[in-house]
Structure formats: structure tokens, C-alpha cells
Structure to design on (394 residues):
């Protein structure tokens, strides 16, 4: 895709991911990242508070987009469907064209407990923000909490598949499948006990 | 309840919670905790790696009990029901008689981002352990992942009610209600669009 201006954030993120991938997160310095990106440390710290944050640059924007989509969405949809619908739109808009980078980022985070903690924290904040917008919409805090959590669960299941080597389906296509699997799992009924002889 | 021996771990946890509650987690030292408990720093560090861990002493034991209950449970139950059933048994066995302490712990954690991160991390580890035992049982990793996540969601919803001031129902009673609410939320169907005039 042609770009009308060089994107410092994206260059820093790509350089950081390459280096984390090659030599590990711990062993990579900010100096190495800016060198690989052809930028200065000043630029780095203009955009990110620390080395960890370079991996989470997209989080705030993603959250804003998801919340915006839920708020703008069809009121007739039940809360869970409304969130999954918003996740589908945002997946198309912000993630699908970055599949390789997002997949690499996921692998780097999975390899480092400190990064996993930050990721869990960002996900918890996103879930809470989703629950808040659902609560305002449906009026019931428990339904909002459960719908937000269930949507994030479907999202994670879809995401795991989307980042698997060889997977070609889009995240948008995987999301409804994951929601279907979640519904099936949640609705599984106990097997009847065998009849007495 | 009469105890056959003094429980250093419980005394340290109670003292720590009281102090965190009174003066905040950050401002409390290990020296103050052991003084309040009438024990030594040596005893503290025999049981806990750091000040944070005093709040998470029960986690490993809880996880072990929950996994054991799932493994020992009725094979005819679908994965989600099997986990909720195990959570009910463990709630009765390990949490119900500690309601005040557990509620206070929950409030201390909610007030401190660093403690919240640790809590999220422990919950993620528990969810993964549950998913692993379900996977071994049902053979399908996605069903295992979704059932474990859904059970934790019901658990959190029940837990939120259980720790609310004035709530008198037991966690064991609140769990099936939360599971029912989760099922209702996940199954809500879209409202039909209005007929054209």
C-alpha cells in the first residue's frame, strides 16, 4: 500500500518485533530498535513510555474503535452479538492487513511472562470498557459483564486460529464460527443417566 | 472452629489484610505484618516470596482442589457443567468459611493495579489448567478453552455478588444462578426487525 507519509510508529513496531523475535525481548535495547528503524531515541520516547509499550501501541486505538462500533451499532442486536459484530468490523479495518505483524507480536508476548501480564491487563481494561458501554445500553450490569466476557472469549478463540501457521480464513470469518462454538459449548446438556436395568 | 495447631499462614494473611486495609498495600511493610501477627520475618519468608504473595497464598491450593474435583467428577457432565460443579464443591470447602477475609482481600486487590496484574495472571493460569484437564477429557482444545473461560466468567459473576455488602447467599448457591445468567446472555436472540408498513 502506498503511504503518503512515513509512519514512525509502525517502523518502530516492526523493527522492535524483528529484534524481539531474533534475540528475545529482554536482550533487545531501545537503541537497537531505533537503529534498525532508522530513527532516533527521541522519536521512540515521543511515542512509547518504555520498551514494553512498543508492543501495545495499537491497544488504545483498537479499544476506541471497538467501543465506537458498539455504540454506533444496531440496537436490535443482543449485547453479545453487538460486541462480536463490532469486533468483526474492527478486525477488517485494523487487523487483517497486519496479520504477519500481529502474529509475530502474539508469539513474542507468549514467550515472556512480563509481557503476558501487560497483555492480560490491557485485555481486562478492554473487557471493562465493553461492559461499561453495554451496561449503558441494556441497563443490567450482570448481563453487560457476561456479554463482554463471552465476546472476549470468542475473540480469543478466533484469534488463536487466525494466528496459526497455514490458517487462511480472515479474522472476520473466524469470529462468527467462534461465537457458534461458544454457544454450542455453553448449551451442551448433561447426558441422561442410563436407565436402570 | 477449634484448630489443632496455630496456623502461621492464616495469621500472616489476616494481619497483612488488616494493615493493607488500614494504611494501603504500598505503605505496609513486612516488619509491620509480622509484628501484628506475633511472628518473625523468617517465618514470613518461609511461606511467602514477597509482600504481594501473602495475598495469593491460597491460589495454588485452590487450583489444585479445583483440578482434582474436575478430574474426579461425573464424566456424564458436559465440560462447562463439570467445571462449575467443581467450583461449587471447592467454594464450600475452602471459601465459604473465609468470606470476610476473602472479601477484604478482593477490595485490597481492586485498589492496587500491581496486585490486579498478579490476580489476572493467577486467574489466567487457573483457566489454562482447567482447559488442560478438560482437553484431556473431551479431546477438543477449542471446547476445552471455551468451557474453561465460560466457567471462570460465571465464577467471577458469582464472586462479585458474594463479596457485596449485605449479600447472604452462599457462593455455592450463587454459582448455578450465574451459570444460568451466562446461558441466558449467550443465547439471547436478535430482535426481529419491524415488518415493513
Amino acid at each position: 500500500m502506498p503511504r503518503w507519509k512515513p509512519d514512525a510508529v509502525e517502523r518502530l513496531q516492526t523493527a522492535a518485533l524483528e529484534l524481539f523475535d531474533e534475540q528475545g525481548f529482554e536482550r533487545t535495547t531501545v537503541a537497537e530498535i531505533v537503529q534498525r528503524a532508522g530513527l532516533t531515541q527521541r522519536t521512540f520516547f515521543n511515542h512509547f513510555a518504555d520498551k514494553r509499550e512498543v508492543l501495545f501501541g495499537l491497544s488504545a486505538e483498537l479499544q476506541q474503535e471497538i467501543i465506537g462500533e458498539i455504540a454506533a451499532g444496531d440496537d436490535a442486536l443482543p449485547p453479545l452479538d453487538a460486541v462480536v459484530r463490532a469486533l468483526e468490523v474492527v478486525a477488517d479495518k485494523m487487523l487483517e492487513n497486519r496479520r504477519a505483524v500481529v502474529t509475530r507480536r502474539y508469539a513474542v508476548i507468549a514467550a515472556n511472562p512480563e509481557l503476558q501480564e501487560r497483555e492480560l491487563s490491557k485485555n481486562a481494561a478492554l473487557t471493562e470498557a465493553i461492559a461499561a458501554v453495554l451496561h449503558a445500553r441494556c441497563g443490567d450490569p450482570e448481563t453487560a459483564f457476561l456479554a463482554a466476557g463471552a465476546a472476549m472469549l470468542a475473540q480469543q478463540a478466533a484469534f488463536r486460529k487466525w494466528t496459526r501457521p497455514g490458517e487462511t480464513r480472515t479474522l472476520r470469518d473466524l469470529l462468527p464460527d467462534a461465537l457458534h462454538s461458544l454457544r454450542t459449548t455453553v448449551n451442551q446438556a448433561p447426558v441422561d443417566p442410563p436407565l436402570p436395568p
Remarks:
- The first helix of chain A runs from residue 8 to 23.
- Residues 1-5 of chain A have pLDDT under 50 and may be disordered.
- The CA atoms of residues 91 and 97 of chain A lie 9 Å apart.
